[in-house]
Amino acid sequence: MIVAGFGFRRAATVESLADALIAAERAQGCRAERIATVADKATSDSFAGFATKTGLPVSAVSSDALVGQDTRTRSEASEAARATGSVAEAAALAAAGPGARLLGARVISPDRHATCALAEGDPA
After folding, report:
1. N or C: which end of the chain has fewer CB within 10 A?
2. pLDDT by position in tens, the chain (length 124)
3. Range 2-120 classified under CATH 3.40.30.10
4. How far is C-alpha 86 from the chain's CA centre?
């Protein structure tokens, strides 16, 4: 299964998230089958609207599940806020299950409000 993980700012819109997903899917040449983000952001208006728009199942990942994920990107802001190099990459890996692998580094939406990374795995 391919999981698209997201990190995003409060200013992110449905379009920010959609643009990030499109860019990640194009970069990796595949389609996401599930979307994921950290649990406290999963119910935000923008992410909920995005989930409705895509029709994809949502995985709300605990903050604890982000810690220790082997991300390709190292963002100082993500490290300080969430103890991970990339929320998008860590959320994708956590939601894709044990042994998941990133298909590439995160991509950033054109408005710079959202990031998306794809991981392949076998969620429980």
Report:
1. C
2. 999 999 999 999 999 999 999 999 999 999 999 999 999 999 999 999 999 999 999 999 999 999 989 899 988 888 888 888 899 999 999 999 999 999 999 999 999 999 999 999 987 6
3. no
4. 9
